[in-house]
Amino acid sequence: MKISTKGRYALRLLLDLAQHRNCGFVALKDIAKRQDISKKYLEQIVPMLNRAGFLLTGRGYQGGYELAKEPSSITVGDILRVTEGSLAPISCLEQEPNMCPRCGECLTLPMWQGLYKTVNEYLDSVTLQDILDQQTTLYGNDYVI
Fold first, then answer.
1. What contacts 24+ positions apart, CB below 8 Å, involve 93-98?
2. 87-130, pLDDT tens digit by residue?
């Protein structure tokens, strides 16, 4: 499994909004500049995140985006499933029930199911707030004057 640029950038966009959640609506151009991501690319990601209920949109002069939910309620797993689709390591696990004609005799299926379960459990256990808290722990209040 490899996470695409779309998934990684969606995570960075939402983390940026989480960091600036007390600033009101944040312009996409500001996020693009801070994150060093093309504004046009972010414009392609925003509709997916909007449909998934992660964003609130403000129009007009003071418009932009802000998180629709608390950072502690948005998991990395939620974000990646919206942007990447299934996180299944093999195609036969993408559908439930498994329609693979070999699934009843496949010796490797339990191993792939275990990997899939582990990936999902881990990504569903990490929230945007966890990532922000980790950054605070790593860098603390390291102010330079």
1. none
2. 999 989 988 888 888 888 999 999 999 999 999 999 999 999 99
